[in-house]
Amino acid sequence: MNTPPVKRIAIYGSTGSIGTQALEVIAAHPDLFSVEVLTCNGNDELLVEQALKFCPNIVVITDDSKYMKVKDALAATDTKVFAGAAALEEVAAMDVYDLMLAAIVGYAGLKPTLAAIRAGKAIALANKETLVVAGDIVMQAALEHRVPVIPVDSEHSAIFQCLVGEARNPIEKVILTASGGPFLGRKTNYLVNVKREHALQHPNWNMGAKISVDSATLMNKGLEMIEAKWLFNLKPEQIQVLIHPQSVVHSMVQFEDGSIKAQMGLPDMKLPIQYALAFPNRVRNAFPRCDFRKFNTLNFDEPDYRTFRNLTLAIDALKKGGNLPCVLNAANEIAVWAFLKNKLGFLEMTDVIEETMQKVPFIERPNIEEYYASDGEARHLAADLIKL
Length: 388
Ligand code: NAD
Ligand code: MG
Known about the structure:
This protein is an alpha/beta fold. The protein is 44% helix and 15% strand. Magnesium ion is lined by residues 153-155, 224.
């Protein structure tokens, strides 16, 4: 039997929750994957530790004040060290890897991912904000450069897995499941007092700070609706969200004959990460298995749109399109940052996003420069509203 060639991986955001789990997956399969590029924002110590273990060709640290520290620590190795945001894009275009795992958080992931697509690299996409901000341009570029964009987000991985073998069959609708986050069932009078520590405690998933807050406000599900629209070419009315607190059904696809496929498993991001890295193959692993006898019931409910208004705002942006999802995302990033710094209340995040969406001029078909400008404008407006 022919053994497949080793896939050369670049992990953008290697020190984060997704990045570190991806390295665990890769460490378990050295016959399938090699690590060629690692990048992070500022966690130089973990980056160096990872580089010493995985011997990548290149590391990039965005915070250039840390450059010398990383350079010195890796002086005895063959790893090349780059620093600064521009280096993320330069390295993304280099012929040193085959697939980028896009696991930077937020808008910062957009430019490197676009650079990778334009260089013809396959993308395993965790960074949903890339599609929220400029999904039309990113997916068009992927089409032009014949680049596969394989979702890592568990819901989208589920939908993707349900669609394997269904290329000729149109989707009637997708059902995106949501755990509901740590405040499921809570009302405004409770949420008004919520602080950073509560919001960071997610019942089913252990994730980075930003996405944990987004899960608590349900903004995450709104961003995922927009992500689904671009990944699977859907109309807004084809995307339904259901609260499913057990997080066993990761999402579902309903076809034109009414048949529904679901992808299921325990909530463990290593599975969708491994699937995206190894696609189209499934790879044996030792992850815990799902035992349905431990789940007496699986519940599915309508989200509480009145309490979790971020989801309503995101649906508004999804329906209106143009630069509105980009503005929503930028305002949300600023609001979440301020909330994490205890400078903004939990419910006030929604007010900031709503007001920013009203104030930034609407552009129906933005080009990439206009997306960048809308992002900047929304950030400034949101920061002014919070008086940062
Ligand atoms: P995280 O905060 O744990 O890690 C983020 C990574 O990005 C770190 O390596 C950090 O150094 C890097 N980074 C942050 N800001 C940067 C900047 N300005 N420039 C360059 N690098 C920067 O985040 P995470 O939870 O791993 O999430 C990463 C992405 O994956 C997000 O878009 C998130 O929505 C998505 N995602 C995460 C999960 C999860 O379980 N964590 C699940 C689904 C999707
Ligand atoms: Mg998700």
